[in-house]
Amino acid sequence: MPKSSRFLLAAAVSLGLALPALAEPAAGTVVATVGDETITLGHMILMTAQLPQEYQQLPDEVLYDAVLDQLIRQTAVAQTIEGKLSTEAQLAMENERRSFLAGEALSLLAQSAVTDEALKAAYDERFANAAPELEYNASHILLETQEKAAEVRAEIAAGADFAEMAKTHSTGPTGPTGGALGWFSKGMMVKPFEDAVTALEVGQLSEPVQTSFGWHVITLNETREKATPALEEVRGELAGQIQQAAITEALDEITAAAAVTRSEEKIDPAELRNMELLKD
Known about the structure:
There is one protein chain. This protein is α+β, with helices and mostly antiparallel strands. The chain has 10 helices and 6 strands; from the N terminus they run αββαααααβααβαββα. The two termini are 45 Å apart.
């Protein structure tokens, strides 16, 4: 609330007068004018939302005055440059406006593309008829050389306990827990490791497998079918895909429908870097 309004309210309270009703707020409510240019409550709300977090912690009364003062200063200073913009500044402002409006148009289009029907169709396409995906539960022992990996594998094949061998010999972070990796699906492990795991039967021991981390001896403990996620679990991901597809399609369609005329004037492409042309 502006200082003048707070003063009037304080005076009314001290005199026992009825307090004036607060104005019904709206984005277009005018809070100040600078020359013939208006500043609205909407301008203030938007500037406040864009402030760094430390300023967001200020009391509302302090923030109100500070934001309004800043907008008044900006408006007054901006008015002094009317008719004095350089070619570079004018073109930059036009590019910024064009970019902003295009972004807003695509944002509205993307939002409208995400309907319940579109989400259901995208979900069914991805999951309804998809083949069941397996998850794997495996353990491994990480070793520095192929020779050491072969020795450890031979001991396990001869009857040594895999978990105890991992605790004794593994150089990886899972060694203390017996080499257990827990559940994972395809794409979560490096390719050579994944290929070795998916080729194993439950309880089978792999030959030494080399990855960028070293040499592994792997055993497959268990497999299971990966549960199909509920629509709500993947809503955000599907919405993003729908929006991206809608934007890609719209860009082509809108551009194709626009009345575009390319100049036939030949320009040396090197002029693209000639900032001197913007000087005036």
